[in-house]
Amino acid sequence: MNIEIQNLTKKFGKKTAVDSVSLTLTPGVWGLIGANGAGKTTLMRMLVGILTPTSGRVLCDGADTREMGEAWRDMLGYLPQSFGYYPEFSVADYLDYMAALKGLEKKAARRKIAELCEILSLTRVYKNKIKKLSGGTQRRVGIAQAMLNDPRVLILDEPTSGLDPGERVRFRNLLSEFARGRIVLISTHIVSDVEYIAAENAVMKAGRIIDAGTTAELLRAVEGRVFTARIPERELERAESAVRVVSLKNEGGGETLVRYVAEGPLLPGSDFAEPRLEDLYLWLFRDERRQDDV
Amino acid sequence: MKSVDIISTLRSLPAPEPDAGRMRRTLRLCRAEYRARRPLRRVGAWELMRRQLRFTILPVWALQGALLLFICLALGAARPAEELIPASASLAAELAALTALPFHSRARRYGMEEVEAAARLSRAKLTLARLGAAAVGDAVCVAAAALLSGGGWYVTLVFVATPFLLTTAVSLAALSRAGGVYSAICLGALMALGYYAAAASWSFDMLRISPLLAAGICLAAIAAIAVEMYAEIRGNGMEKRLGYEY
């Protein structure tokens, strides 16, 4: 099975949110990486049919998903970036409600809900009101609803936001297993989440896909551009203004280990470092200023 | 070469005989693909309504049931003072128009719109099921108000149908344009009080309104309601609600 995105475009007046995106998604986990406003959410909304594209189309095994209608939505599982719920709903109510909307037969729905609650550690909070749960637990409820109908295509927009590290690891493992023979598309800012499990990634910037491929293929763009350097703490401020810092680690003894991306070694005593997706992200979006830089 | 000559030439060319073995293999592959497809279980309107009952329909019916009780009590209490019956009937009809408002556009208010729109059952089917259920409750309440008012068809038209339809049209328009359910309810409630006051003070004068005019007002209100319902079913304005600006 594959999903072919052909020249998908979405314009809002003069603003182009998604600009002629073409991509073929094959079974496995796909990471969709990009800064805020890159167009990831808009692209995902067009894939699931919430937004109508200005032009272009999405094909599932050659069939236009708009013409497939219910059959396409039956194959989908979707978790939006902002997860809402009716205030009177408990976890059980919410999942029952979503199962009904997904056309699941009642007995099958109950079995699936029990299975997902076990996998996502929701059994203890099953009868609790969602509004009383922590953000991370609410997110897990959202993930559960996305997987209720055993989707062949799972689209998750920032699924791990609010999850603690242990939950993120469990979630990654769950997705890796789930993705066998299915397509899972995850958009995230937490690049390490896709680094470990995504077979392929697509990088979005200003509404366009600027690069796509396996992690190894993408990392060629930053090969030889990632460095580490141990610098005195008093040099830190100057270093931060001179290079794009990926991470800082206080080494004690008045020294800090700086990991940075640059065309060449700009700090004294720099060593080459093995590139990671986070380095690629900062390299590709190095022109976008952080809020605290302004 | 003319098209007709090309066509006749092509038709005269010998076509290869289909390979029986390949045909059988193709059929086998097609059947395997067909069996492996994900079957789409049919979900009928009745099942949809039944599954939605607990979550979205029963709360509306509960409120409408409470209103029905109020209608029976209020109109029963108004019986000794016959001049108050038309005004009470109009108030009951207008309250019936407001009962479904708190449940209208809940998905929007609580951020469920996206996830519901991506679910298998289309937004249109879901909205129709909910609107249909609310309409059933409204019809029962309005019918009760009409029957208990004890008047003829013209009294029903002026003091039950017209206020009900006008309040529904105005409050739905307020909901979609002013955005807030509370502003829609307030506007509807003001209309209800205004019509009640007019009916209480001028019920005989109101009965002199031309039936054509009253029917015309009702039809205009029905048209306005139909426009709002259509927009609701189509999900118009979704892009704006998701934060996109043109």
Write the layout of secondary structure elements.
The complex is a heterodimer of chains A (294) and B (246).
Chain A: E1 3-12, E2 15-25, E3 28-34, H1 40-48, E4 55-60, E5 63-64, H2 65-68, H3 70-75, E6 76-79, H4 91-101, H5 106-119, H6 135-147, E7 153-157, H7 165-178, E8 183-188, H8 191-197, E9 200-205, E10 208-214, H9 215-219, E11 226-232, H10 236-242, E12 244-252, E13 255-261, E14 271-272, H11 277-284
Parallel strand pairs in A: 3-8, 3-9, 6-7, 7-8
Antiparallel strand pairs in A: 1-2, 1-4, 4-5, 9-10, 11-13, 11-14, 12-13
Chain B: H1 3-12, H2 20-36, H3 45-78, H4 85-99, H5 106-109, H6 113-117, H7 123-149, H8 153-178, H9 181-206, H10 211-234, H11 238-241
Helix pairs in contact in B: 3-4, 3-7, 4-7, 4-8, 4-9, 7-8, 7-10, 8-9, 8-10
Describe this structure in words.
The complex is a heterodimer of chains A (294) and B (246). By secondary structure, chain A is α/β, with parallel strands linked by helices. Chain A has two domains: 3-218, P-loop containing nucleotide triphosphate hydrolases (Rossmann fold), CATH 3.40.50.300; 221-293, no CATH class. Chain A is 33% helix and 30% strand. In chain A, strands 6-7-8-3-9-10 form a six-stranded mixed sheet, sandwiched between helices. In chain A, strands 2-1-4-5 form a four-stranded antiparallel sheet. The longest helix of chain A is centred in the middle third of the chain and has 14 residues, at 106-119. Chain B is an all-alpha fold and 246 residues long. Chain B has one domain (45-236). In chain B, helix 3 runs antiparallel to helix 4, helix 4 (85-99) runs antiparallel to helix 9 and helix 8 packs parallel to helix 10. The chains are: A alpha/beta (294), B mainly alpha (246). The interface between A and B is medium-sized, with 38 and 29 residues.
